Amino acid sequence: MPRKISPLFEDLVEQYIENHAKRNKRSWRFDQSTFENYWLPAFEGRMVHTITRRDIVETLDTFRKHPKSGKEELGPVLNRYFAVCRKMFNWAISQALIEDNPCKMVTLPVKERSRKRVLDMPEYDKILDALERDDIGISKQMKNAIKLLILIPARRSEICGMRWDEISLRRSLWTIPEERTKNGEPRIIPLSKQAVEILKSIPQHNSYVFPHRTKRHDRPMTADSINHACNKIRKVVSLRDWRPHDFRRSAGTHIRRLGCDRHTLKLILGHTMSSVTDIYDRYDGMDDRTLYLQKWADEVLPTI
User: Where does residue 251 rank: exposed (0-12), middle (13-18), buried (19+ CB within 10 A)?
Assistant: First the structure.
């Protein structure tokens, strides 16, 4: 039987982005940029069946420097680049477009370790003091976003994509629809008095609470913009090994310190309930969640 002719790499990428990533992944733009900046320059013009495991390993090694800036790529982002390509090949197999995945049995470029960094209260004070400075080069909109990220242990993408139709200021609730949560389930977050005051101070001129600062007002601000703002804070505040995602871990740790039980903390963080007991216990713990999120707000940001 003659071998099935495989597609060109660039054609497979286009099919994957259009027929799978855009339809199923909120992060499809990351997939697209990963192919454009990394994988396509390496494999454009190649028939997919000619790409070998050795090719994948050697190409991954070239990713340690950004193809445009030349800056060294550090940490788990290299694993993300690899995962995008591996996912595409697996999808292509499921669609009977190819027969084998050259990423199979290739180890991750970087060994990842779970971060344990937790900000202490004096460090929070330093960050919040920096946000009050007029010379730090951070917009009022971004300052409000970072304050909400401190008060609410939500993911950066959830804060950035916050919409006014998700917010009830009267009931002090934020409802994140299932298409915007990591576990695919809608999530209701009680808002502290401080969070409500911040939201009330923001003009409702757009469907997004934090719209993109370009002419594309139909898009929200990006998580990268929060990263850039935090880089500016680092220039004026000395903090050890601090990253924006540490806000979420730190808030969860401090809320636990304030007396919150683990089940309620899972609900606050929006983690999937995986145990048999969790599956049968459907109590939403709204009163407890409201209590501890307010306790946390009163401790970290007692006044706005």
Answer: buried
Q: For the full predicted model, state whether its pTM sits above 0.85.
A: no
How far, CA to CA in Å, does 234 sit from each of 94, 102, 161, 183, 222?
A: 45, 41, 24, 32, 19
Pairing of strands 187-190, 167-168: unpaired
Query: 126-173: per-residue pLDDT in tens?
Result: 999 999 999 999 999 999 999 999 999 999 989 999 999 999 999 999
Q: How far apart are CA 153 and CA 100, in angstroms?
A: 41
143 and 87 both lie in a single domain: no
- Domain identity same for 73 and 128: no
Total domains in the fold of the chain: 2
Backbone angles phi, psi at 128, to 5 degrees: -65, -35
Report in angstroms the alpha-carbon separations of 117 from 19, 32, 139, 293. 39, 31, 27, 21
